[in-house]
Specification:
The chain is of the alpha/beta class. The chain has 2 domains: about 160 residues, Rossmann fold (3-Layer(aba) Sandwich); about 120 residues, Zinc Finger, Delta Prime, domain 3 (Up-down Bundle). The protein is built from 15 helices and 5 strands. α1 runs parallel beside α2 and α10 crosses α12. Bound molecules: zinc ion (ZN).
Amino acid sequence: MKLLQEIVGHRQSVKILKKAVSSGRVAHAYLFAGPEGVGKETTAMSFARALLCSLSEDGDACGVCRECRLFSSGAHPDFCLVEPAGSSIKIEQVREIQRRVPYCSYQGGRKVFLIRQAELMTAEAANCILKTLEEPPLDTVFILLSARPQILLPTILSRCQAIYFKAMSMPDLIRGLVNLKGMPEEEARLYAALSGGSMGRALSYASGSLMADRDGVNALSGLLWHGGPLDAVEMADKVSESKQKAFFTLDTLACWYRDLMLWRETGETGGLFNTDRVDMIKMEAARYDTDRILAIIEEIAATKRKIEVNANTRLALETLFLRLCGGSGQQY
Ligand SMILES: [Zn+2]
């Protein structure tokens, strides 16, 4: 488990949190808002441990005291993680929290409740937790995580100190991957580029088998170019098996088109992500003008956003692929 000071990126957020711990001026409720996979939960866990640590120094956990060890083993009695049961966080789950809140902490310090995907609270559950946030009990800290804070009740938002997590920068991602995985920088650059600013996603690509599919995804642009609507629908069907596969495909495609554009504009291979596919990039780049490539990259990003807010993955991909297909028969 990471210390706050070991969190990659998010310097400003980490600074605010460490300051809160070291000064003892801790809010009753925090909202960690930002896209999936950028590090909200990792940071929240480190923050929670720092809040519970009995020997915290400079606003960070010591990592060795009894509290820290209990926390790291997942057994700290004053820490409670709440996550959606099925598709929502139900009122019974919030009532369970409320039952625990009035009691003293087991270890005599704070109590910390971490709520994952807080936007999935049902209206009843949200109204119920609001009561607790309105009369915050002493030494109790709520941390709400959400990729879609805009759909939380405004009354809940106003009770929380918001900490924003942005997509991570390429240099931060590359540094993080090199440090965490010990991979060469060249390789880290590709994963970082594919991750869409999410360290979680970069790590899952780096440790999963999806990368073997990269060639298949890179070939998609060519297949769509030569194919017709029925091919587009068939490809969307294959890619929409899982959200993870859909995101991987969209991120990989966006990188591919970005390489096509870079080659068109500069005629140089130095900044390409897919350095092992230069010949294909040169060939495909000749098919498009820069405006068309930019429009495609924008459409891919829009499709990703739609899927992130729970649009039907298959329909969103079909729409995109139908727009991209049949280029060989058209003039751009
Ligand atoms: Zn400690």
